[in-house]
Amino acid sequence: MGPRASEDEVVTPSKGVKGLTLRAVLPNAITAAALCSGLTGIRFAIDGNFEKAVLAIILAGMLDGIDGRIARLLKAQSRFGAELDSLADSLSFGTAPAIVLFLWSLHDLPRFGWFAALAFAICCTLRLARFNAQIDVEHQPHKSVGFLTGVPAPVGAGLAFLPMFLWLASGESIFREPAVVAVWVAAIAILMISNLATLSWGLIRPRRSIRLGAIAFAGLVFAALLTEPWWTLAGVCVLYLALMPYSILRYARIKSQRAAALVPAANGAASRVE
Fold first, then answer.
1. What is the pLDDT of residue 110?
2. What φ, ψ does residue 3 adopt, rounded to 5°?
3. Residue 67 sits in a domain of what CATH number?
4. Residue 85's CB: how many other CB atoms inside 10 A?
5. Which residues of the chain fall short of a pLDDT of 50?
6. Strand (E) positions, the chain?
7. Does 268 fall in a domain?
8. Please, are residues 174 and 117 in contact by the beta-carbon 8 Å criterion?
9. Nearest partner of 120 among 109, 106, 130, judged by Cα
10. CA angle 190-194-195, nearest 5°?
11. Where in the cell is it found (predicted)?
12. CA-based, 20 to 30 A from 165: which of 36, 101, 104, 177?
């Protein structure tokens, strides 16, 4: 996430260029827009409009997904952008979902409901702090093979909203039961700060033989989002959770293969020493 930099680094301005370029401002502007969208979700929840509240936070997730890519495309990565992105994520995917879920359901369970909301917001912040602390760390076992550590903050927010997706889709009151929602939110909070290996977008590489089928499936998912958004979002959450055991097993297999490959190398080095 951005080049290594320090506070005392001196940046030499380009001659004849005054002010900031659009290339430098655009990624951070998108991050600020994501932050505003996430916080606006709180305003909608206060007004009792929970559909708009969820959609605002989903929009924040979409903007968060493109700001880093645009920064890399424009070669405008910076340590400032990385820090701003993490702070925005903490508010949009930690604080905002916690308050929305509390106003929607958890307020009926005053003590434990608020603790569950706090746990979610705190765990999201801790996850992002861990990510920032590891930016300059060379050895990251999960990242080195394309995996993530724990559930990402935007995904965690989406998973936390699963009961609300089901409630909006079906209208069943069981999905709004505060005890059920509290346990679910606490479980997602633990997944965010866990050390489990989870799949990243970089690992999803369909074979060329199913390329057309993958494109058609993506189009159908988009159509489903337009016609049945809440059922579709719930299905995406369930699919992600179903893939978690696969990602854990796949990482364990890769880890064992790496360990097996290191044994002959270690034996060879020992024999040369002898």
1. 78
2. -70, 155
3. 1.20.120.1760
4. 25
5. 1-14
6. 148-149, 197-198
7. no
8. no
9. 106
10. 170
11. Membrane
12. 36
Packing angle, helices 22-46 and 96-104, rounded to 10 = 20
Overall domain count for the chain: 1
Looking at this protein, which amino acid is placed at residue 90? S
- Helices and strands in the chain, H and E counts: 11, 2
Residue 273 lies in a domain: no
CB 135 within 8 A of CB 115: no
Q: How far apart are CA 241 and CA 185, in angstroms?
A: 14
**Residue 56 near residue 81 (C-beta atoms within 8 A):** no
Tokens of 11: 């940046």
Tell me the residue length of the chain: 274
Sequence-separated (6 or more) residues with CB below 8 Å from residue 257: none
pLDDT of residue 7: 39
Looking from the CA of 71 toward its CB, the CA atoms found within 13 Å total 24
Please report whether residue 56 resides in a domain: yes
